[in-house]
Amino acid sequence: MGSDLLGIGTSGVLAHQRLLQTTSNNIVNTNSQGYVRERTLVYTNTIGLGTGDMVTSRIIDNYIQGEVQRDTSAYHASLSRFEQLSSVDTLLGDKSNSVGAAITSYFKAFHTANESPAEIGGRKVTMTELGGMLDRFHTLSAQFDKQTDNINKRIEDETRQVNGLLTSINDLNYAIMRTHGTPEENLMLFDQRDEAIRLLAEKMDIRTIPQANGSMLVNMATGHSLVLDGGVAQFQTTAGNPDSRSIELKVTLGQNEARIDHTTLSGVMGGLFAARDDLEPTKRELGQLAIVMADAMNRQNNLGMDLDNEIGENIFSLPSSKGLPYSSNSGTGAVTVNVTPGKGGEVTSSDYEIQFSSATSFDVFVLDKQGNRTSLAAGTTPPTTFEILGHGISVDLGGTPATGDRFLLQPTKNAAAQIQQLITRPEDLALASTLKGEKSSNNFGGADIKLNGIFNTGAGSGFTANTLDPAAPQVVKIDNSGNYEVYAADGTTLIGVAPAATKGQNLMASIVNPFPAGTLVYSDPKQSPGYEFSITGSVKPKDNFKVSYNTNGFADNSNGLVMAEMQNTLLVRKNNSGNTSNDKMTLSGAYSSLVMGIGNSTSETRNQLKANEGKLLQSTSIFESVSGVNLEEEAANLIRFQQSYAASAQVVSTAKLIFDTLLSSVR
After folding, report:
1. What is the DSSP letter of 340?
2. For the whole model, what pTM was predicted?
3. Has keyword Transmembrane helix (predicted)?
4. pLDDT band of 2, cuts 50, 70, 90
5. Rg (Cα) of the chain, in Å, rounded?
6. 8 A C-beta contact, residue 290 and residue 137
7. Per-residue pLDDT tens digits for 467-483
């Protein structure tokens, strides 16, 4: 533009008009989501007087913007995780869903039944409470499954939103590149793209790399490319491997496909996966609790006698589950996991894995919460049934596995939903002892016979169908030397002799045959004959004692008392390497531990959420101080630019007046 007065004024008018447009745009977009403050720089004319080039740009700090994106991901990760965990925490805190309260009511009813074991009334109350406790297990298990399903649906919904955002960012990249560096360049497109990137950062942890052509590359924090100049990635949820309900995430870009480790995601999706991972151990702990309770009650009921003079039956069914094959398996093998009756106290809440080194050789591993494997045992087939010693489970192997095939075993995950009630009649509760001890009325000594415990009424024991085997030890006689002679039911068939030095204590573990230099008759009395008793007090030669089946012992509640005391017995194994009394909890204690586990995770996530919220507010505040619109500043600029515009217009008016004066002077 020339250096004449008119040209100078015109350049000023145009420059300040541009400045007024920029300021006005800032003012009207002060509340627009994602808007970044713009600034127009006016340069002097390099070849004359007046203004020269004008450049409008966005005022933004890329480092702070990246910090906001990272803080956004962290905040939404903790928020989504907290929302899911607090829902589970509320569920467990509701007394109407409390398994612990149901267990307490169940054992309270047992105490009531023990007060009058021969009457049906108390037994009916116990059966009602038993059914109520089982319903609580089923309901809570179903609620956990529902929570997992809800999380999976949320993950699928978020996946679709992520794909939409990636497509939008890619489209905006192309729109920006078409006009980048030209007068037609629209800075609002940058704002829209930044907002889409911010929304994407809410979903997962990302990194952005600006390009010279105006486009923006987007990568996951793990390095996976999401948006490139030549294409855009898309996410997809897939069935878990091998657990199809534990959906996984994969990303596809062109011909490339990769599985995503969900522990690296952050954002809403990372929080959802983390909450699902938090819920999985709780399911298994509930299943472990159900197994231990059912097996303990079964075992004790089997040791007692019901109102029909019969040895008690199982109260509950024990669960079994199919081993889940990995997708890479090439053989036809199959695996079934069963709880070993009588060994429920050994069951842990862990998952296991079987890997075949050949069609007939396999290794067993226990998995921790992170999926890390620890070798437990190795075996070969046949036989096709293999017990995992010390863990209360056995494995049935079938089919023909191939080398390298693997199976995931989840014995406790769905156990709480699978356990069912087997007995339906109050009479089936075996409150009475199966045995009774009596001393002869003709005894001269003051000793009594005392049952120390009944441990086995099934295979290998001294019991047959609802009675004692005639060949089982049932009669004790004191010989002239004070030794304890143990006979079969006929009183003449000698089974073994315990020396007087034993003082009659634990006779089944002490008798030998022949006496005195023979071998122990019973190496493990808890298995065979399945019971133990002692003679306590002073005995005399010819004293006679008898052990017999407790026929018509309806008023007896000795087995019922043991069942009721299970409320205070250490039964549930803690999930560590040991299997001792110090490694056990009560049933109520195990449920409390389960509830506390979720409560602690919820509290930890709440604290993390508050910290992440504070960090996000801080970084957002810094970003807004740079890129946000300050209305006071813009109002001042508006007045200043108005005045400058008016002054420039006055220059133009003055130039026109001078020009008109010159024209009139030459007429």
Report:
1. P
2. 0.89
3. no
4. very low
5. 41
6. yes
7. 999 999 999 999 999 99
* Gap between the Cα atoms of 79 and 95, Å rounded: 26
* Residue-wise DSSP of 437-458: EEE-TT--S--EEEEEEE---S
- Residues with Cβ within 8 Å of 658's Cβ and at least 6 positions away in sequence, in order, are 5
First to last CA, the chain: 29
Angle subtended at Cα 131 by Cα 126 and Cα 134, rounded to the nearest 5 degrees: 125
Enumerate the domain spans of the chain. 5-60+629-665, 65-271+607-619, 277-418, 435-549
Report the residue count for the chain. 667
- What residue type is assigned to position 571 of the chain? L
- Cα(207)–Cα(538) distance, integer angstroms: 86
Contact 435/548 with Cβ under 8 angstroms? yes
| ω into 325 cis (within 30 of 0) | no
pLDDT classification of 667: cutoffs 50, 70, 90: low
Query: Is residue 602 within a helix (H) or strand (E), and if so which, with residue range?
Result: helix 587-627
Counting Cα atoms < 13 Å in the Cβ hemisphere of 287 gives 27
Query: Alpha-carbon distance 223 to 220, whole Å?
Result: 5
CA angle 458, 460, 463 (to 5 degrees): 55
In terms of pLDDT, which residue wins out, 229 or 471?
A: 471
Q: For residue range 34-63, list pLDDT tens digits in order.
A: 999 999 999 998 887 888 889 999 999 999
Whether omega for the bond prior to residue 242 falls within 30 degrees of 0, making it cis, is yes
CA distance 391 to 579: 9
Q: What 3-state DSSP class applies to 473?
A: coil
C-alpha count within 13 angstroms, C-beta hemisphere, residue 616: 21
CA 142/CA 414 separation, integer angstroms: 9
Distance CA 352, CA 361 (A): 16
- The predicted pLDDT at position 578 comes to 54
CA 387 remoteness from chain centre: 27
Strand partners, 531: 454
Question: Rounded to 5 degrees, what angle do the CA atoms 126, 127, 130 make?
Answer: 85
Place of tokens 């990760």: 77
Q: What's the CA gap between 323 and 327, in Å, rounded?
A: 13
The kind and range of the H/E element at 402 are none
What the block records as the tokens of 133 is 């406790």
Distance CA 475, CA 443 (A): 14
The pairing of strands 385-388 and 373-380 is unpaired
Strands (E), 381-498: 385-388, 393-398, 406-409, 432-433, 435-439, 448-454, 463-464, 467-468, 475-478, 484-487, 494-498
Cβ neighbors of 343 (< 8 A, separation 6 or more) are 295, 392
Res. 401 pLDDT band, cuts 50 70 90? very high
List the 393-398 sheet strands across, edge first. Answer: 320-322, 334-339, 393-398, 385-388
pLDDT tens across 343-374, in order? 999 999 999 999 999 999 999 999 988 889 99
Asked if 659 contacts 27 with a C-beta cutoff of 8 angstroms, the reply is: no
Distances (CA, A) of 271 to 149, 158, 268, 602, 604: 15, 11, 5, 12, 13
Q: At what angle do helices 120-179 and 267-302 cross, to 10 degrees?
A: 160
Structure token digits, residue 303: 């040791």
